[in-house]
Amino acid sequence: MNGLHGIVFAYKNRSDLRELTQVRAAASIPFGGRHRAIDFVLSTLVNAGVTDVGLVLYGQYQSLLDHVGTGKDWNLSRKRGGLRLLPLFSDEREWGTVPFRGKMEVLGSVRSYLQQIRQDDVVLMDGDLVANLPLKEIYEAHQASGADITVVCGSDSTAAPDGTYIQADEEGRVREVLFRLHAPRGRRCMEVFLLSKELLLELVDECAAHDQFSFRRDVLQARKDQMNIRTYLWGGYVAQFRSVVGYYERSMQLLCPAVRRELFHPDRPIRAKGEDKSSTYIGADGVCINSLVAEGCNIEGRVENSVLFPGVTVAAGAEVRNCILFKETSVGSGTLLSHIIADKRVRVNPNRTLMGHAAYPVVLAKESVI
Amino acid sequence: MKKECVAMLLAGGQGSRLYVLTSDMAKPAVPFGGKYRIIDFPLSNCANSGIDTVGVLTQYRPLELNSYIGSGLPWDLDGDGGVHILPPYMGSAGGTWYKGTANAIYQNMGFIDLYSPEYVLILSGDHIYKMDYSRMLRRHKESGAACTISVMEVPWDEAPRFGIMAVDEEDLVTEFEEKPLHPKSNLASMGIYVFTWKKLREYLTEDERNPSSENDFGKNVIPAMLEAGERMAAYRFSGYWKDVGTLVSLWDANMDMLSLDSGLDLRDEAWPIYARSVNGPPAYFSGTCRVSHSAVNRGDEIEGTVENSVLSPNVVVGAGARVSYSVLLPGVTVEPGAVVEYAILGEKCRLGTGCHVGGAPDQTAPESWGLTALAPGCCVEAGRQVAPGTMLNRNGEEVAR
Fold this sequence. Notes:
The complex is a heterodimer of chains A (370) and B (401).
Chain A: E1 4-10, E2 30-31, E3 35-36, H1 37-47, E4 52-57, H2 62-68, E5 82-87, H3 103-109, H4 111-115, E6 121-126, E7 129-130, H5 135-145, E8 149-154, E9 164-168, E10 174-179, E11 187-196, H6 197-209, H7 215-223, E12 229-234, E13 239-240, H8 244-253, H9 257-263, E14 280-282, E15 287-289, E16 291-293, E17 298-299, E18 302-304, E19 307-308, E20 313-314, E21 319-321, E22 324-325, E23 330-331, E24 336-338, E25 340-342, E26 347-348, E27 353-355, E28 362-364
Parallel strand pairs in A: 1-4, 1-6, 4-5, 8-12, 14-17, 15-18, 16-19, 17-20, 18-21, 19-22, 20-23, 21-24, 22-25, 23-26, 24-27, 25-28
Antiparallel strand pairs in A: 2-3, 6-11, 7-13, 8-11, 9-10, 9-11
Chain B: E1 5-10, E2 31-32, E3 36-37, H1 40-49, E4 53-57, H2 63-69, E5 82-86, H3 101-106, H4 109-113, E6 119-124, E7 127-129, H5 133-143, E8 147-153, E9 163-167, E10 173-178, E11 187-196, H6 197-209, H7 217-227, E12 232-236, E13 241-243, H8 247-258, E14 283-285, E15 290-292, E16 294-296, E17 301-302, E18 305-307, E19 310-311, E20 316-317, E21 322-324, E22 327-328, E23 333-334, E24 339-341, E25 343-345, E26 350-351, E27 356-357, E28 372-374, E29 379-380, E30 385-386, E31 391-392, E32 398-399
Parallel strand pairs in B: 1-4, 1-6, 4-5, 8-12, 14-17, 15-18, 17-20, 18-21, 19-22, 20-23, 21-24, 22-25, 23-26, 24-27, 25-28, 26-29, 27-30, 28-31
Antiparallel strand pairs in B: 2-3, 6-11, 7-13, 8-11, 9-10, 9-11, 31-32
C-alpha cells in the first residue's frame, strides 16, 4: 500500500556520552526537560502520518522499553501495525563481541520483518536524532524527485565524531560520500534515508551476499553513481549527541525562544510518555530565571540558566546555575551547582560545591549521593 | 461480571454559582490546581482505593467532560469494569432528565445490576479531597449498616451550611438535618455514601413512587431510611475537604494547594491525583521574570511577575505584566504590562497590553470588593480597567451575579 513505514535504530551505544549512556541506550537519553531522544523520532514519524514503526533494539534497552511501552503515548498501540519492537539476537559469529557491524547487517537480521512491511516505502532513522523534521514534506519531495534513495542532510558541515558528509551537485544528486574526515566538507548527513521497501530488500540481500554491512559505505558510497541518490536539505535545529559537551550545548540552546518554537512546533507536536506529577511550585523566596522547568519540581532556592526535569527539588539557600538536572534530583540547602549534568535521582547533600565548566560539564551518575 | 462495589459519580451539576466559568461546561470539568479538573479527585480516589467500576452521571453540557474522561486511561479506569458516562436516555416508555440525585441513580439501576454489586458508593463531582474509600467500605461492612455516610467535623458556626448528623456512642446516625438553624452536632455530611445495593434498590423504587419527593439523597432517601429505622453508620473523615461550588471556594482551594499547611498535598506520591495531561514543552522562565509562591505548568512562558498564583498549562505572562493572587486556567495569555489581581481567568482568556483586571481588597472599598471572574475565551482589550468583583462573559460584557 501507498505510504511510509518507519524503521528506527536504537542499538548503537555512544561510549563518549560517559555516564549518560552507562544505564541506557542513546535513544533514551533525557533531553529538554521532559523528553527522551526517541520522542522526537517517534513524533516526527507519527506527525507525518506513519502508522507502523519497527524499533530495532540492542543492548541496554531496558530504559527505552520502559519509556516507549506499547507506543500508546504516540498513538502507536494499534490493532494492526503500530509499534513493533525488534530486539536483535546476537548470533555467534566469528567477530565475537561486536555482534553487528553496521545498519545493513542489522537490517539483514530482521529481514523477515522487512518482508512483511505493508507500505511501499521505508524511512530509516536513528533513535537518538533530536529534530522536528517535516517528514511529510520530505516524503513528498522524495516521491516527486524520483530518487532511489533520499538522504536528509543538515545545511551545515559541523564536525561531529563519526559523522557522514555528503556532497551533492546543483540538482541535489549525491556525488561524494565521506566519513572519518578531520576537516569536514559537504553537508552533514542526519542518517535519515527514504527508499522503497523493494529496493531496501534488494540491497539487504546484495550486501549479505558480499559480506557488506555498512549503509554509508556499501550503499551510499559504493552505489552513488549507479543509483539516483538525492539529498533533502533541512536547515532547522538538529541535535545528534556524540559527546557530553555537545549534549550540554544542545540542551542549553533550548533556553532560546526561537529554538524552542522550532523544535516544539505546534503543528508537529512532540509527544512524550505521560507524567503524573503535580504542578511545579516556586517558593516564596525561590528564584527561577532563564530556565526550563518540567512539572512536579519544588524550587525554594535559586535556579538560573538551567534545564530541570520532573520532580527536581532545590532547597532554600541552594543555587543551581547552568545545570541540567534529570528527574527527581534533589539539591540540599547551601549547595552550589554550576555546569553540572545530574542523572536521575541524584542527591546532592547540603553545603556542597560542585562546579564544571561549559567546556567540560561534570556528569553525576544515576542515583549517586554527593 | 460481578463487582463487590460500584461507584456512581454525580457529575450532572450545573455549577451555577461558578457563574461564567461554567457557562459552557459542567462543574466537574472545571480546571483546578493547575493541571487537574475537579473530577480528577473522585476518579483518582476510586483508582487508588481499588474501585475499578465507575458510572459518571452527566446531563449538563457534557461535551467537555465526556471528551476529558474518554476511555478512562489516565486514571487506570480503562480495563475490567472501567469508567462509563451515563447520560439520561429514552426508553420505550419515554424518559426524563435526571430529576434529582436519587433519580439519576434510579434511572441507572440497570447499569448497576450489570455488575450485581454488594455495595454502591455514591460520590459527587464537586469536592477537592483525598480519601481512601476502601476504609469507608470496611466501616460499612463491619457496622452491618444499610447506609454509611462520610462525615467530618466542621466549625460550629459553619454547621448551619451543611447536612448535619447526630450520632450515638457507636457513631450510628440518630438524626439528620439539612442545613439546621440550631445544629445538634458539628458532624457534617460530605455527600459521600456507601449503600448496601439491595437496600438502596428498595428505597429508590419507593422514592420514585412518591410524587411529592424531590428524588434527592440528602432530602428524601436518607431521611426515609432513618425514619424506617435502618442501621445508618457515620464514617469519620479528617483531612482536607472542600466543596468548590462557588468562585470564592474554588479560589480558596487553589490557594490552599500552594501551602502545605492547608493539608492539601498534591505532591504525595503515595496517593497520586491523576489527570489527562496536555502536551507541551516544560515551563519557560525568562531572564526577567519574577515568580514566587506560585504553581506553574507545562507550556507556560513567563516573562513578567507572578506571585501567589496558580498557572495552568500553556499560560503566557508577558514582560512587565503582573499576576497576583489569581488562578489562570489553561491557555490564558496576559500581554505585556497587563495586571491581574484576585481573579479567576477562564480558559483561553486574553488580556490586552496594559489592561487591569481585578484589584486587591486593601485597595478597594470593602463593600464593592470581590473576586473578578472572566468566562472562557473572553478577550479584554488593551488598556481596559475591569473593576474588582466584576464578571465578564465570553464577549467581554459585564454580567450580574
